[in-house]
Amino acid sequence: MPEKKTIQRAKKDEREGKSPSTQAGEFVHEEIKKIRKGKHGARSAKQAIAIGLSEARRAGVKLKPPKKGTVSEKTRKSAESAYEKGQKHEPISKKRSLAREKALKKESTTTVSHSALSRQAHSAAAKRTKAERSAAAKKAAKTKGPRERSVAAKKAAKTRAAHHH
């Protein structure tokens, strides 16, 4: 079950007009925190992210399930059912939650280290075209306020300076 704070943060993102994936990011962040604290583990960074997205869908974030052919049919089906449950606000089975926790407790907690997440982000970005990455950045800039935009611009300049010695 996601924490109240996480749900409130996601709701705030929704009010600010941010995309469903940004709202879902709050749940992914919480999942990473849980694993780092040692509450449970995950088999990979990808699994940790998937759990976060699933929690977001169940909490009612309007994050559409992936399209056919993008992920395995099993993943798509489970995303669809989580999405529907979230939109209808159906309760989560206690037995299932406990079984899930028990299974995840046996997994490693090092899968969400900074380097592991960095590798995951890098490989995910590499699968996207330059146009897609650029469009995502432009879309993100739209919902930023002036202060945030300034901070982001400074960070980008710093990153560019670091990579183009």
Write the layout of secondary structure elements.
Layout: H1 4-15, H2 20-37, H3 45-58, H4 73-88, H5 94-105, H6 114-126, H7 130-142, H8 146-163
Helix pairs in contact: 1-2, 2-3, 3-4
Describe the structure.
This protein is mostly helical. The protein has helices at 4-15, 20-37, 45-58, 73-88, 94-105, 114-126, 130-142, 146-163. α1 runs antiparallel to α2 (20-37), α2 packs across α3 (45-58) and α3 (45-58) packs parallel to α4 (73-88). The mean pLDDT is 91.
Distance between the termini: 46 Å
Helix/strand-derived class? mainly alpha
Overall mean pLDDT score? 91
Order of helices and strands: HHHHHHHH
Dominant shape: globular
Number of domains: 2
Percent of residues in helices comes to over 70%
Number of strands: 0
The major β-sheet equals: none
Keywords:
mainly alpha, globular, 2 domains
Nutshell version of this structure?
Helix 1 (4-15) runs antiparallel to helix 2 and helix 2 (20-37) crosses helix 3. The protein has helices at 4-15, 20-37, 45-58, 73-88, 94-105, 114-126, 130-142, 146-163.
